[in-house]
Design goal:
It holds the Pfam family TctC. The protein is α/β, with parallel strands linked by helices. It has twelve helices and ten strands. The chain has two domains: 190 residues, Bordetella uptake gene, domain 1 (D-Maltodextrin-Binding Protein, domain 2), CATH 3.40.190; 120 residues, 3-Layer(aba) Sandwich (D-Maltodextrin-Binding Protein, domain 2), CATH 3.40.190.10. β1, α2 and β2 form a beta-alpha-beta unit. The chain is globular and about 65 Å long.
Amino acid sequence: MLGRFLLAAAALLLAVPMARAQQFPTPGRPILLLGGFPAGTQADIYWRLIQQPLAAELGVPMVVEARSGASGNIAMEATARSAPDGHVVLAATSAMLAINRAVLPSMPIDTQTDLAPVMSLFEVPNVMVVSAEKRPHFTDCQALIGAARAAPGKLNYASSGIGASTHLAAAQFATAANINMLHVPYRGGPFAMTALYQGDADLFFYQSGPVLDDWRLGRVRLLGITSAERMPTLPEIPTIAEACGMPGFESTTWYGIVVSARTPKPIIDRLHAAITKVTDTPEVRARMEGMGFTMMLGGSEAMRKRLAADIPHWAGVVQRSGARQQ
């Protein structure tokens, strides 16, 4: 009798973790990992990097979908309107969460009340990129500023869209340098880079990852980076503050995970723990830092505070740059 009792007790103890694991997510029902921008972007690369280990950690299938359009608003609205069970998860950027509301004439949701932060992931600065072939006289930031002052309104800068971080970083730079440049928006980073290579664009503030190979091959010059300090993975690239004589200049983009605001806290905590576990590994860290990201695995409250501070900051930048869409 005692033996049977001990066996039954052991079986019960073993069953408890399994029962808890099955409470969320729903067994067999996949989690949809949404991205607000096209496949191949930095957020999409991250999702696909952690897709399999995250599925194993949560015990359910994972589906990655790049639901692009409307500067990320389509994906944000789909997440906000989804069932509050953690089965729709969005990798959002600070541009989607903080800048869109200042740039776009209307928003389908309120990013502070309709979405719940799960965790912050990483931060990435932009680099000032010029073509080494088409603009050989732009040897450094001071040379570019000098050219802009000599011919006000003649130089142009590309962006991946009105109100994108690539636009507002350049607008901040122009304001700080007291120069007048023409803004030319494109339908995404790859199109803007093509314009740069063809000589149609004078400069472009872009994330470092997509341009590192061309920089190493000498096709482009990186005149400065928009982070407050030099990146450990690119120590030879000076900050904009250093290279351009602009103390305090900083303009970065951060990524975070959000779900529907109605999602219960235990589900948010479960997602946070699982994503942290699969992300905070040497392999994932090395991959993301190699693309120019700085890991910043923070909790939901830290992300909420960061968003609350960023909204008025970017509203001011948008107002000064005139980036608001009509």
